[in-house]
Amino acid sequence: MYRYDDFDAAFLAERNAQFRAQVERRIDGSLTEDEFKPLRLMNGLYLQLHAYMLRVAIPYGSLDSVKMRKLAELAEKWDKGYGHFTTRQNIQYNWPKLPDVPDMLDSLAEVGMHAIQTSGNTIRNVTSDHFAGAAADEIADPRPYAELIRQWSTDHPEFQFLPRKFKIAITGSPNDRAVTRAHDIGLRMVERDGEPGFEVIVGGGLGRTPMIGKVIRDFLPEGELLPYLEAIVHVYNRYGRRDNKYKARIKITVHEAGLETIRDEVEEAFVQTRADFEGVDERVIARIRERFVTPDFVAGGAEALEEAKADPVFRAWADTNLADHKHPDYAIVTVSLKAHGQTPGDATAEQMRVLADLAERYGHDELRISHQQNVILPHVRKADLATVHAELKRAGLATANVGLASDIIACPGMDYCALATARSIPVATQLAERIDTLRIEHEVGPLQIKISGCINACGHHHVGHIGILGLDRAGVENYQITLGGDATETAAIGERAGPGFAYDEIVPAVERLMLAYLEHRTDEGEGFLETYRRLGAAPFKEALYGPEKRKDAA
Amino acid sequence: MPRPFSPKIVTANDLIEGDVVYLTADDRWSRSHSEAELLEDEAHATIRLLDAERQQNRIVGAYLADAKAGPNGPEPVHFREAFRSRGPSNYAHGKQVAAGHQ
Ligand code: HEM
Ligand code: SF4
């Protein structure tokens, strides 16, 4: 497991002491809110609708039992006994009080954690595949590269004042679980002639102007990663529009200048950057790799999994919540934080402790947070799965719905977020309850429903098979549906289905979509997205709006 | 002709706790929407907002929000203000705890 080194610890202590003094000066009135706001944002502290919110970074979504217990402690001591895991692989506390925040940060620092949002127009936290280091389809663990990028970009003089913030996602597998096509730069590991390298994708992003990233380089040898990234950022820095904040993202640069132009200029800049790097990055990555230790896997015991499946409850869970591990006697366990009717991504302090204990006893002390707002135990022996499942069940964590309709991503929306135009959490919880009542999600199969409470798209609604965007239409909550979005390597932006639905109409509308899919699919093997791609929007629009509407549209 | 002024209240977040607060006629910050001073005159509303903004060491982000008179005092007009006056809908946290669930 990666550990912060001494330098980082000293840096954190200094930052925390600084912030403690700033909080004191804010409270005694010597700092105004205008002066304080940028300082608190730099330290992950936001002011939301009902309270402050502290956003704690979980780099690449990886943590161990000590860190998870620390998160539980914070939830209990300074919040209301729970935390909210987000789509950016962070955790948010919704109820801290301003004078307590310096203590929370000091407490986090004891285990090398922090809330520093590399905020501003710089390169943000690198997000990564939540199955990193465990997935059967993985070519290499992407986290050392993510850490390499973090070290390279932190305090890089040229990149402190980019036209706009810059987000990078990286996956070590050809199967994209990190939504690489919706980031400014996406890196998807692929192999060519037995050599590992990256497919480099630029110009993706969601928000106000959603765009799917384009492949700028189909194969970049792994050793040339940093000089190539640096070349992209050079070119972006030259082009990026600083006149308009909505147009300053690299997606707009690529769109306006054209991929070919940008590619030619990047390749030209790359000649120079490659020469400048002289292989420095290859030595650095070798050092970083030593810190990501592969656990000592214990062979044998795989037959226990098949035996445990005699229990139908275990079997249902195993069918949805397990994924293939690179070691044949292990499995990857996804723990659903989407119990029907519960807030997506929320975990109580008690649940966090159960997860920490399970990781320690049965999971080589590793945990991950996924952008789907679930928790992963990446390395569990098949021999231990039945025990792990039983313990999860006791803690209310054994919901068998990963990848199914009720495994909904939802942003905090207007229950917490000051920017929201409508609520998203109650739409998610009511929808999940309805799905549970209908008992149809296992029949419907893989279906991704994603909900955002405003156009910033923190809930990734654009890339949901069914996306829901909450808006304020003349003082009333209104929900717009998009269809056909895809967050994987075949990424697509969903298309608007038509007029929006009122708060009490949105759950029945989504129910009609699921029923329409069941009616129109060729057989069980054809997923929602495939049926949508084969038939187009027409049958789904009919399900939403009735036959007249379809005739109008035709 | 100028548009008629729609009544307002002054609201903000408490500096220490972050909780939603409302400016009362007797210059307190109340946690309860119904205790807010209903401002029916535009010039007076502007003055009250300035009064609020001067209290930087007590509150954050003061603004005027639409409100209407009700039997127990001012009531929110927009749903955002209604949520702010209660707390989140997924847990009985925030103001609704003290108010005994509305
Ligand atoms: C509640 C406090 C939050 C605030 C104030 C906030 C604000 C924003 C804003 C303003 C943007 C747009 C940035 C831009 O397009 O340049 C954004 C983007 C984003 N947020 Fe949040 N957010 C919040 C919570 C969350 C949460 C809880 C999640 C995860 C569940 C999240 C995930 C994201 C993601 C993934 C994006 C990037 C979308 C893109 O590619 O453009 N945010 N956020
Ligand atoms: S999508 Fe909008 S409402 Fe949801 S968390 Fe992001 S900014 Fe807030």
Strand content of chain A: 15-25%
Terminal residue distance of chain B: 40 Å
Percent of residues in helices of chain A comes to 25-40%
Please tally the β strands of chain B and state the result: 5
The chain-level structural class of chain B is: alpha+beta
The CATH topology of the largest domain in chain A corresponds to: Sulfite Reductase Hemoprotein, domain 1
CATH architectural name of the largest domain in chain A: 2-Layer Sandwich
Spatial order of the strands forming the largest sheet of chain B: 3-2-1-4-5
Supply the number of structural domains of chain A.
4
Structure in words:
The complex is a heterodimer of chains A (554) and B (102). Chain A is an alpha+beta fold. Helices cover 39% and strands 18% of the residues of chain A. In chain A, strands 16, 17, 18, 19, 20 and 21 form a six-stranded mixed β-sheet that branches. A five-stranded antiparallel β-sheet of chain A has the order 1-2-5-4-13. In chain A, a hairpin with a 4-residue loop joins strand 1 and strand 2 (52-57). Chain B has one domain (8-98). Chain B has a five-stranded antiparallel β-sheet. In chain B, a hairpin with a 5-residue loop joins strand 1 (8-14) and strand 2 (20-23). Chain B starts with 7 loop residues before the first strand and ends with a helix. The interface between A and B is medium-sized, with 32 and 25 residues. The complex binds protoporphyrin IX containing FE and iron/sulfur cluster.
